[in-house]
Amino acid sequence: MSTEPVHLETPLTKEDIEELRTGDVVRLNGVIYTARDAAHARQAQAIEKEEPLPFDPEGQVVYFTGPAPARPGHVLGPAGPTTASRMDPYSPILIERGLRGMIGKGSRSEMVREAMQQHGCVYFGAIEGTAALLARCVKEAEIVAYEDLGAEAVRRLVVEDFPVVVINDLYGGDLYEEGRKKWRRSDP
Amino acid sequence: MREIPVDTVTQAVSDLCIEANTCLPEDHLQALQRTLEREESPLGREVIEKLLENAEFACEECIAFCQDTGYAVFFVEVGTEVRFVEGVISKAIDEGVRRGYKEGYLRKSIVRSPIDRTNTGDNTPAVVYYDLVPGHGLKLTMLVKGAGCDNMSALRMLTPAEGLPEMKRFVIETIEKAGPNSSPPLTVGVGIGGPFEKAAHQAKKALTRPSGEPNPDPELAKLEEELLEEINATGIGPAGYGGTVTALAVHIESFPTHIAAFPVAINLDCHSHRTASVEL
Questions:
Q1: What domain range includes position B245?
Q2: Angle at B230 between CA A81 and CA A109, to 5 degrees
Q3: B52 in a domain, yes or no?
Q4: Is A74 marked active-site?
Q5: What secondary structure letter does DSSP report for A146?
Q6: Fewer CB atoms < 10 Å away: N or C end of chain B?
Q7: Which residue, B90, B110, B145, sits at the end of a domain?
């Protein structure tokens, strides 16, 4: 586990994420895309119908969030991560298409973790209760698809030093499991 | 009879929506602050520090500290000597939510049915529970309930023979299953007794108690302490990254029940624990 943050520029290459280990503190810079429940359902439909996706997943990082409205003068309203497991049914089809990173909170399914290891994708955790601070790292924001979904529309964000922690790396590590095991004082 | 124009209620509700979503209550902030002394994991302490920094920043900027500005839940205590005039109370509360969520730049997260899933666009309807109490008073207590932790809540109808040991096991099992998904450190509301729905109602209402204030019944207070200790021994920790602080408080509410029943409901609330109340 590295104590100093690793600074990474998006889009991410396979080499970038091969270096990462569970528990590493990372600062992301560059473009990331937002999508949550409804946008994932639509992307899955688009793939099924062989229609274009809102963005080419190759090398990209998706952030599971639905921001609050922005006050005038703010780039984006508060935007913390939502529970990632609700995206589990959809993530593998994007990972197969080259998605390199996901940002959310909470555990992922076995199927998603296997897809991540097989195709090369890491899962980052952000802290949900820091939505106001996270939005401050967003320098540009624009809706690029599914505008009718409101908070759930797909947004292209440009972020600066966006703070995340590696939950699942390419080698089967899981910060939630390892952290719990390390600090447990009772019988599981 | 005391007459209260419903417009007064609308304004109070609108103010509560903004206050609850932008400034964490003092008792909760203090509870978070105190965990810095007992959280042993450095990463866990870092999470708590970030939560506190976020709370301060959001309150200063008057923006939501969590994007999930949730269901607008109200516990309304109405004096029997109160009469609402110039409108209907339930509509006035909805109007307050509509106004507060718009003026406070809060996210509208309510869909009109679980099947249809079209957003109502204004975060209504509010979820309102009325209690009639003696006197001329009116007290509104708001609980902003995010879905992440609500989704990890649970209810089970135990048998009297299973009793207290099974109740404790069920609480711990629920927390273990929720793990990082419910965004710890948590406030844990436990409702026991009553018929099915009463247990759930009690669990939710328990969340509005000031953080860590024990149940007046010494036996329940002791049980709250025991459960808190056991929850913190799970190792889940702040944000689920591992640590010695998984919950800030356990609040139990009990209600008489049937000779054949022992209902237990557990309602979890994440680290963005949002309550506010006003007396009119």
A1: 148-272
A2: 35
A3: no
A4: no
A5: -
A6: N
A7: B145
Cβ-contact B271, B32 below 8 angstroms: yes
The pTM score is 0.95
Q: How far apart are CA A17 and CA A40, in angstroms?
A: 23
Whether the upstream peptide bond of residue B125 has omega within 30° of 0, thus cis, is yes
Query: Which amino acid, residue B236?
Result: I
pLDDT in tens, chain B (280 residues): 999 999 999 999 999 999 999 999 999 999 999 999 999 999 999 999 999 999 999 999 999 999 999 999 999 999 999 999 999 999 999 999 999 999 999 999 999 999 999 999 999 999 999 999 999 999 999 999 999 999 999 999 999 999 999 999 999 999 999 999 999 999 999 999 999 999 999 999 999 999 999 999 999 999 999 999 999 999 999 999 999 999 999 999 999 999 999 999 999 999 999 999 999 9
Cis peptide leading into residue A52 (ω within 30°): no
Query: Would an 8 Å CB–CB cutoff place B217 in contact with chain A?
Result: no
Go through the domains of chain A in sequence order and give each one's CATH number. Answer: 13-183 (3.20.130.10)
The Cα–Cα gap between A8 and A26 comes to 7
> What are the chain A neighbours of B41 within 8 Å (beta carbons)?
179, 182-183
Q: Are residue B107 and residue B170 in the same domain, yes or no?
A: no
